[in-house]
Amino acid sequence: xNQKKGNLENPTSEIQKKGLFSSRxxxxxxxxxxxxxxxxxxxxxxxxxxxxxxxxxxxxGPLTNPRQRQEKMFQIRRDAAQFHLRQQRxxxxxxxxxxxxxxxxxxxxxxxxxxxxxxxxxxxYATFLSILSSGDPDRFKDIPRAPQAExxxxxxxxxxxxxxxxxxxxxxxxxxxxAFASAQLAAEMGEVYWQALTRDVPFQxxxxxxxxxxxxxxxxxxxxxxxxxxxxxxxxxTLFRGETTGDSIGPFISQFLxxxxxxxxxxxxxxxxxxxxxxxxxxxxxxxxxCQRGLxxxxxxxxxxxxRFISSNRELAEFVHQDFTFQAYMNAALIMLGxxxxxxxxxxxxxxxxxxxxxxTFGNKDVLHMVAQAANVAQKGAWYxxxxxxxxxxxxxxxxxxxNQLNGSKSYDIHPDILESDAVGRVMxxxxxxxxxxxxxxxxxxxxxxxxxHAANAGACATxxxxxxxxxxxxxxxxxxxxxxxxxxxxQGEELTLGNEINKLANNITLGRDGAGVHYRSDGIQxxxxxxxxxxxxxxxxxxxxxxxxxxxxxxxxxxxxIKISNGEVVSA
Length: 573
Prior knowledge:
The protein is built from 17 helices and seven strands. The chain has 573 residues and is mostly helical. Strand 3 and strand 4 form a beta hairpin.
């Protein structure tokens, strides 16, 4: 077998025949973590630069007896732990809303007792906070619940879990969510309303669709505008897209959500069974109120019998409804592994190797393991901010506040931009109230909104992929879904690179949750930074553990900064 071409272990795999599973740029080895981290990569806080003595071959190679090996491992773990202990990160700010409002109008309260306005009972919320702050596992069974509630809170005790590598979730830092009364939250809520109103419009038709044109006009009328822009304005081509350079190039959807997935001896296409169009939930006030109280839903999603590719926010919202944490990124890794060694990072030490290839280190086993590991670590960071810091309200709850203010039930200090918007007016004329039409029968998940867990996963997993693969590699034979999603056609536009499409994938998954009506843009963008911070920490830790001669992991962060990670050191490249 030609070791240069693929260096594969199992020549029977179709993927391997393409030379795909040959290792990757490197790092990781599999045992529990070690090392250093990046101090404030999130949300514009910057990346700390760390130094670590480069290991000599005799320090990491075979030691003369098992005791020496154990002592070396202890030294690595000790040095890493001491390094993390020395890091100083600023206190995590909040937006102040929880203290500002006695009625907790701006906080997550799902499944708890609520009054007829959908406001939590104050004593119940105080008990909830007391239990969260205690961390006492025996008290969590006493979290107050609404009568007949069946919904259960999503794993709040995960916020107290530790990891043995990377940045501790409690050490991550990010900008707080926008304040309840702010123009920014009004603009983000306007975007979510328009994502609901345009949920069934094919992405290919954005430039010609009248409803999309109305969305663009309305969002540009807000005093704050959110998301990417062209010449300072939201346009049909920037609407609902992510904020990296790659998000503006090519089709709305990443290639990794369309291309076939090599999966062992099978190839999986990405046509899925999706919900039928023109379905919305929580558009009746009593249905909405019951949902806030955690009562079971009576209606269910109806699905089409004919599978289709993702072609609108309807399909994207359902993909991120049913996916597991690292699914899209595992798929992307498998697709890129199938592109051969040229798609791997240029710093992979096994490029051109004649006598060996990477597997457990710098190979397919590493990348798949690291993507999964990054997702789990990132989720704990998101959970810390969700449960112990911000406890931010979901969009469906904000829409209830808008409805109750405009129908005269109670006045909240909601920014007039959203109250006077065309988006709210169109929802009112369509449904008879201003409640947000969400894509899921059960409404939002039973955990707070900020930051988005899908986004933290996206930031972490995409960062891993950029470290492992060649960001400049041009994707061969790109495609796009036709408007109805029934088939794919060749993409004839700009070249699409792995780095840009990885970033686009992260934002598709992140903002697809906004398209479902369960998150705001800032939940996603800030969540991405939390995940990125933790992934860089994991890479930094593992970069200390290898025997191979390795130039380090090179990647481009979501803010455009290029960094190098080598021997526990993270520096601008």
